[in-house]
Amino acid sequence: MIKRLSLASRLALLFAACTAVVSLLAGVLFNHASEAHFIELDQQQLDSQLVALRSTLQGVDSPQLFAQREAQLRAELNRQPELALRVTAQGQRWFDGAPGISLPEAPGLHSLQNAGTEYRVYNAPLVAGQPGSPQLTLMLDITHHQHFLQRMQHLIWLTVGLSALATALLGAWAARSGLRPLRRMGEVAASVSAHSLTQRLPQQHMPVELAELAQAFNAMLGRLDDAFQRLSAFSADIAHELRTPLSNLLTHTQVILTQPRPLEDYREALHSNLEELQWMAQLVNDMLYLAKADHGLLMPKREALVLGDEVEALIEFFALLAEDAHVSLVREGTAHTAGDRGMLRRALSNLLDNALRFTPAGGEVRVRMAETARGVTLTVENTGEGIPPALLPRLFDRFYRADPARREGSSEHAGLGLAITQSIVRAHGGRIYCESEAGWTRFVIELPKGD
């Protein structure tokens, strides 16, 4: 199995490749510019030599005249050891400084290699613009130029290799240093467990590109920590809530079985146990309901509802209970929405039940409804002792009760009623919050407009 390269190694190789390509392109361009420069220098030198040779052979148009000037020509050539000359006229060679070498006959500048020697060949007439004028072929030895170009090419390849290697090493160091925050994130992620969810990444030391990722990572850890704490508290609350009824059932059953008793005593014991079991069953059902809400499995039906009619039906249901508690029930306004009748009735029932239980005798419970531009607002408020502001954010927590010693004996009073109500409201796309001031406590439900 081929081992995958690390991100730092990939960046280092990428840096090295980019450096090698850039260095190679720069070397090729420099080599091309050097060759063009040497060709230009050779052309200038050949032009100057051509002027001198034309001056030496001025007026020569026959072999006899050339023979008279040949000594002067050789003296001129001796002063230029890297220069050779061939003179031809009408197919005859008057002078050949490079015997045995085949030279191009086309006019202009040419390059030629012979026996390991590089030449620059230049063909031009002795008298410019005169037909039949003897042709001068100048051969300039440029071997030293080529040696320089070859050394430069070797230097280019060496520079490319060394720069790529140096860049790879420096790139690996830079990439490793730059990726240190990622390794830190990996270390934190590897150390996360149920006992270490409080660790956070230091965002102030993160690069700009990783700050957003670090913030999202810390937010994720925060959500995990909160969810784990809630789950731990939820498990502890479940154990606490179930421990008391189970203990009651066991104790009651053990007492009944200690000695023979009349049939009526057994019937009464079973009836008492049945009440406890019914309470436990309802508690388990409520917890399953909340679990479905947490996973987005509550899918309310959408039907047109007149909230005034639904509230009126609930007020009639709670009328006797309110009368016994000497509390008045009042309904104000009406509204229309789309939602699940059963789920919304359950939510309103929980709020009315809470309001009646905590309203003192002679108090009032009021249900107000109104339609706004954003949707529907439904408020359940009651008179009585207010709720401290510090406790308001926790009212919708599961199993939360302002008085932990209070126990009413039914699942609605185990601290799940408001949590269920909140889940129902959220499933309908709304929100619920509580306000308590000036002797009134009100729960406000805001629902979006119905379809």
Task: Offer a quick outline of the entry.
With 451 residues, this protein is of the alpha+beta class. It contains nine helices and twelve strands. The two termini are 59 Å apart.
Q: What does this molecule look like?
A:
- This protein has nine helices and twelve strands.
- It is rod-shaped and about 160 Å long.
- Strand 11 and strand 12 form a beta hairpin.
- The strands form three sheets. It has a five-stranded antiparallel beta sheet with strand order 2-1-5-4-3, with helices on one face. A five-stranded mixed beta sheet has the order 7-9-10-12-11, with helices on one face.
- Helix 1 packs antiparallel against helix 3 and helix 8 runs antiparallel to helix 9.
- The longest helix is centred in the N-terminal third of the chain and has 50 residues.
- About 2% of the residues have low confidence.
- The chain has 451 residues and is an alpha+beta fold.
List the helices and strands and how they pair.
Layout: H1 7-56, H2 63-78, E1 83-89, E2 92-96, E3 108-114, E4 117-125, E5 135-141, H3 143-178, H4 180-191, H5 208-257, H6 263-294, E6 303-306, H7 307-324, E7 328-332, E8 336-339, H8 341-357, E9 364-371, E10 375-383, H9 417-427, E11 431-437, E12 440-448
Parallel strand pairs: 7-9
Antiparallel strand pairs: 1-2, 1-5, 3-4, 4-5, 6-8, 9-10, 10-12, 11-12
Query: Separation of termini?
Result: 59 Å
Q: Which of globular, elongated, flat, extended, rod-shaped describes the shape?
A: rod-shaped
Per DSSP, the total helix count is 9
Count the beta strands: 12
Strand content: 15-25%
Helix/strand order, N-terminal first: HHEEEEEHHHHEHEEHEEHEE
Regions with pLDDT < 50 over 5+ consecutive residues?
404-412
What structural class should be given to the helix and strand makeup?
Answer: alpha+beta
The largest sheet, given as strand count, sense and whether it forms a barrel, is:
5 strands, antiparallel
Write down the Rg.
51 Å
Helix content: 40-55%
Strand order of the largest sheet: 2-1-5-4-3
Mean pLDDT figure: 82
